[in-house]
Amino acid sequence: xxxxNLDRFAQGLPDRQTxxxxxxxxxxxxxxxxxxxxxxxxxxxDGYHYCSEECALEALGARWVTAGYDD
Length: 71
Ligand SMILES: [Zn+2]
Description:
This protein is 11% helix and 14% strand. By secondary structure, the chain is α+β, with helices and mostly antiparallel strands. It has one helix at residues 53-60, and strands at residues 25-26, 35-36, 43-45, 48-50. Strands 1-2 form a two-stranded antiparallel ribbon. A two-stranded antiparallel ribbon has the order 3-4. The chain has a domain at 21-60. It contains one helix and four strands; from the N terminus they run E-E-E-E-H. The site of zinc ion has 8 residues, from loops. Zinc ion (ZN) binds next to loops.
């Protein structure tokens, strides 16, 4: 016969490491799409979120050039 455990501390609190991670968003660079978690620092450009300056520059098509040199 099944005996119910009536000890209210038998189960304990849920293990937080087994809970799914809460994701705040993702990098807008389609080549990256890295997840952004609570507490992460990210770059916000007009409401678009990027994980790094490099990702933002790549996604926006920007690049550093040297004046006076054509490439
Ligand atoms: Zn990124």
